[in-house]
Amino acid sequence: MAYYSYVATDVNGATVKGKEYADDYAALAEKLREKNLFCTQYTEIEEKQDAAAYKFKTKDLAFICRQLSSMLTAGISLVRSLHILYTQEENKKAKATLLDIYEDVQKGRSFSEAVQSRPGVFPNLFVSMVAAGESSGNLDVIMTRVADFYLNQNKINNQIKGAMIYPAVLVVLLIGVFFGLFIFIMPQFRELAGDDIPPLSQAMFAISDFLIPYWWTIVIAAAAIAIVIYFLRKAPWFKLWWDEVKTKAPKVGPLLIVIYVSRFARTMANLYASGLQMVDCIEKSADTMNNEYLSRLFKESVVEDVKHGEALSAAITKIGVFPGIFTSIIMVGEESGALDEILDKSADYYEDEAATAIAGLTALIEPVIIILLGVMIGMILAGIFPILYGGMAGIGNT
């Protein structure tokens, strides 16, 4: 669909200028005739993407979908609902984006086309669900499902962030104690140290002697490592490798798989219930897992098997990633003809399990950091006490 700037005349001969979306000139002329306008001049123009830099967060999407669902269910038109949404929005960039979408729909463009024309602003799942809702005439129902999905995702994201706060504090404390002890504490014991210094104390003094004049090299090295990791995460090959490592890691991998299963099940339930084709449902659900390795595995293996007529449960079983009980549940849903309901119920179960898995991940990280902190402080005390006792003995002899 193209975007046209046109000049037309109305039934009274007056000149009218405007912009309109249409597949081609014939469609443009037909749209204008419906408005009692006769096109005299037109030019295809590029769409403005000034507001496309804003990317709606999960919390924003949940609010938008919930509001749209409520207003559409109450009988308010889509155009009026979008108008209310953008007038209530406080964020300037989000407001500009919603205003552009409202104007597009007001000019006759479909809601799905309006959001699809702004890549990066809305997730592919949101665009697909909007298109399915418009084609089926159940946009209000679909928006309710999407709102529930993003609310659950926002809840899980908040749980992950909350669970990582305490380990992050411990890491900062570990680093602070390390630099504080070696830069400020160890030099205080230099005068108490005699000629006969234990090997551990000698090693600690050597670390202290290096850190005091060259601490900035550690900071630069840490910053360089952080920059390298940042750019590596952007590289597709590194993201693919890292996601595979996470999935197959002992202890951590099974916990992450539970989170991925909950995302896949919820998305599949929503997409399949909205009437999308099975292949499309699988591809879009694989993207929501936020794991490049699993996403590629599903698209290259599961999707191809389903295209050749194989059952979804059998195709997922082949890749050997998801738990056997989950594939058994899918098989029951396929045989009973209630796959969306089965997936919806299993998503509820696995979302509860995902919360437990997040707590489990935190339980794995915290003891490791605490042990490192204890070992470091213990080694420092073991290196300081001989010096301290030696110094006190020397003072006693004097």
Summarize the structure.
The protein has 398 residues and is mainly alpha-helical. It has helices at 25-34, 58-73, 78-88, 92-106, 111-116, 124-136, 139-185, 199-234, 236-248, 252-273, 278-288, 292-307, 312-319, 324-336, 339-397; strands spanning 2-9, 15-22, 38-45.
Itemize the secondary structure elements and their pairings.
Blueprint lengths: L1 E8 L5 E8 L2 H10 L3 E8 L12 H16 L4 H11 L3 H15 L4 H6 L7 H13 L2 H47 L13 H36 L1 H13 L3 H22 L4 H11 L3 H16 L4 H8 L4 H13 L2 H59 L1
Helix pairs in contact: 2-3, 2-7, 3-4, 6-7, 7-10, 7-15, 8-15, 9-10, 10-11, 10-15, 11-12, 12-13, 13-14, 14-15
Question: How would you describe the overall organization of this protein?
Answer:
The chain has helices at residues 25-34, 58-73, 78-88, 92-106, 111-116, 124-136, 139-185, 199-234, 236-248, 252-273, 278-288, 292-307, 312-319, 324-336, 339-397, and strands spanning 2-9, 15-22, 38-45. It is mainly alpha-helical and 398 residues long. It has a 3-stranded antiparallel β-sheet, with helices on one face. The N and C termini lie far apart (95 Å).
